[in-house]
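Q: Sequence in, structure out?
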Amino acid sequence: MLLGYARVSKKDSSQVLDLQLDALKKAGVESKHIYQDCVSGKRAERA
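A: Exactly. Output:
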């Protein structure tokens, strides 16, 4: 079983997962085994 992970770092729709999802599916990963993450890597406060 293959697992896939697709991630974009912006929630404002300026980045999309489409190319990553297509590549994972082409590599043989079933859609039900692809995990998606849309989280910003920016921290509001830095030490």
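Residues 4-38 form one domain.
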